[in-house]
Amino acid sequence: MENASKALIMAGGILVGMIILSIFVYEMIFVSSQGHEYEEKMARAQVASFNAKFEPYFGRELTPQEFVTLFNFVEEWNNNHESEIDRITMNCGTYRHDILTNGQEGFLAYYNTPPARKDNGESKYFFRCSNIIYNQDRDGRLTEFTVTRGEYI
After folding, report:
1. CB atoms within 10 A of CB 150
2. Sign of CA dihedral 109, 123, 68, 147
3. Both 77 and 110 in a single domain?
């Protein structure tokens, strides 16, 4: 009888130990998943913040000054990110060459001269962003867009 009671006490101790170990493992898994969810949430917030820098320019007519501002932001971003996967492609035809060759002042000077202005002094031209592409495979960050020039009639 004495051995049986000691065996029951040992079995109970082992069961209590297994329960404590199971609770510890469950807590570790729970804490780990919470950390992963927080990291994903922060990554989504960073992508949303990044995309928000561009979205005010989409879906409306841009002035030449706004086009240059957008151009500068893309150039600065690309200069600071050497990896091709992080770069932004801004398809803007010869306007990129015009800005790089003539400088921003030269580019804007053209749009401030009489041939590029209406009689009331407003610009005859506007720019529009289109063909906006987000990287859905990776993180949803903006990767490419096209800028075209239009003319007011």
Report:
1. 12
2. negative
3. yes
Q: Specify the number of domains making up the chain.
A: 2
Whether residue 143 sits in one domain with residue 90: yes
Name every residue whose Cβ is closer than 8 Å to that of residue 149 and which is 6 or more positions away in sequence. Answer: 95, 125, 126, 127, 128
Please report where in the chains the tokens 């086009």 appear, as a residue. 67
What span, in angstroms and rounded, lies between the C-alpha atoms of 152 and 122? 10
Cα of 129 vs its chain's centroid, Å = 17
Structural domain harbouring 105: 60-151
pLDDT digits (tens, 9 = 90+) for 81-128: 888 788 899 998 888 878 888 888 888 877 777 666 676 667 778 888
CA dihedral of residues 12, 15, 17, 18 (deg, nearest 10):
180
CB 61, CB 123: distance < 8 Å: no
CA distance 101 to 57: 24
